Amino acid sequence: MGLRLVTWNVNSLRLRIDLVGRIVAEMAPDILCLQEIKVDDPLFPLEACRELGFEHVAYHGMKSYNGVAVLSRRPIRAVRTPSWCGKDDRRHLIAELDDGLQVHCLYVPAGGDIPDPDINPKFAHKLDFLRQVTEWMQAEIRPEDKVILAGDFNVAPLVNDVWSHKQLLSVVSHTPIEVEALTALQNSVPFVDAVRHFVPESEKLFTWWSYRSPDWTRNDRGRRLDHIWVTPALKDSLRATLVAREARAWPQPSDHVPVMVDFDL
Question: Quick one: which residues bind Mg(2+) (predicted)?
Fold first, then answer.
């Protein structure tokens, strides 16, 4: 049986619920992981999500910031919402499906603008967050478990995950210390980068373009911040991937675009 998973940093679910509908119409996901939903749980647009065909919805949100959700056509039998670094900032949701598949929707802190944990608390929090999640994954997940980890990790780890490796080495999201932290998370199980499983590391690949760019298509100064990883148990089930770059040109877009992976599950 095929399964299509899409992850997208929606940057306000209620503002872009129509674009979620467009993703459903054009990409037909079975599971949709959303980050930065920016809506408190009592105001979550549950009925709108169900009208899009997702009978099973799990969400963990807050007003104006952060928040994650998993929309599924397959039954969800259990939900967990871990908190990290002593903060209840709604960045991690685990949906366990009725077949035992675990889907983790993760939103890693951006880290502010200064890549120095000694003078930038936001950057220190990002590194602490990644360390704690890594320790948890190492203790809780085995290679034979069926686990998908998807979301906005806010790190572009590879040379060709950014428009200029040299110019971004000191820019938050591509600094060596962040890359090291994200690599440790990937190695914790270890996870397989499902997108790079299909797209060679020699190819440029981006999922985010800044709102500050006057013409993102001409400059193409992107970064690959959004990822889908799987445990080794799922590697042989991978079938295809797609980064929906055209979504960055939709009306009132997010600065991130949807990322898709197809499985034979």
Answer: 9, 36, 152, 154, 255-256
